[in-house]
Design brief:
cytoplasm; Arginosuc_synth; ATP binding; Arginosuc_syn_C; 5-stranded antiparallel beta sheet; Argininosuccinate synthetase, chain A, domain 2; AS_cat/multimer_dom_body
Amino acid sequence: MADVNKVVLAYSGGLDTSVIVRWLQDTYNCEVVTFTADIGQGEEVEPARAKAEAMGVKEIYIDDLREEFVRDYVFPMFRANTVYEGEYLLGTSIARPLIAKRLIEIANETGADAISHGATGKGNDQVRFELGAYALKPGIQVIAPWREWDLNSRESLMEYCAERDIPVDFANAKKKSPYSMDANLLHISYEGDLLEDPWAEPEEEMWRWSVSPEAAPDQATYIELTFEKGDVVAIDGEAMSPATVLETLNKVGGANGIGRDDIVENRYVGMKSRGCYETPGGTILLKAHRAIESLTLDREATHLKDELMPRYAKLVYNGYWWSPERKMLQAAIDDSQQVVNGVVRLKLYKGNVIVAGRKSEDSLFDESIATFEEDAGAYDQKDAEGFIKLNALRMRIAANKGRSFL
């Protein structure tokens, strides 16, 4: 403990991380640097400054990382059409490598010996933060209070605050949602309380970003997304930054009941966990991206991407964003996106994202060949006979040798 003189803490200003500030000061007798990231969680981050100052913190970092988050993390992930275990759009997972990177950058700037975070010893986030930190600064020390202290309940945390005059709004702390929530520009997640029973249906009051499909408008909403090299650069013809694209899609998607999901997922630490997620913008983005790829990508390139995607998703989920294998996959994925340009028209209606049209100067769709009408000799249907017989040859040989499939 004597070796730790300064620690950079990922700090939200909430109950848990406020306790961690004082616990680090008391337990390690060290200076604490706080880092608060605005990645679009929808809450003011500036109040964290006053809370940190009240606890004697001298170096306080509050960074607006929304554009970097979407440009350098969310968009690259969606170029791969990334979905974990068939459903999860990885909203929490993809934010962690950015936070880990910034923790290390601040540690380097301030000469800190260690970093610290508020992730518990049961979840994936501890793995994600720490794998990222070690990849970027191998000799960094990591302090994870939830793996060291005995403050294992909200009540014990509040008692700790009362005993040590830690500035916490106790009235609001007691009224806090019963769910453990995480939010950023890509999603908001809910875990705990009622959701710990996989049979229990989520309460309607839990959801914050979307109306229920039943309550969504009876009139469909149409939008057009313009893609350049696999990324959305405009909505309805209006050029937008990456963060603004996602903010806009979240609003229009949520208003149409889009993006709710209820999942039992396999955590990296070995347990199953039930969580609910709202990802309205990401749900729209995934559907639109696959639509423009269907028009512009070669068949085998498309199929190879689909084969690589589960591996890529697993790497992101498990915290290996900074690994060499993720970077290798990303290079291949990004190369494929050079031709993924064009416009997708979508119809949003009561929780559904429906492709209503797509067009591209890089389209591989040839109407003269695909038509069911007269094709003026563009495709010789007689060629199919030899193609079929050649592909059937190995099965015909096996059948002739008595290897019947009946």
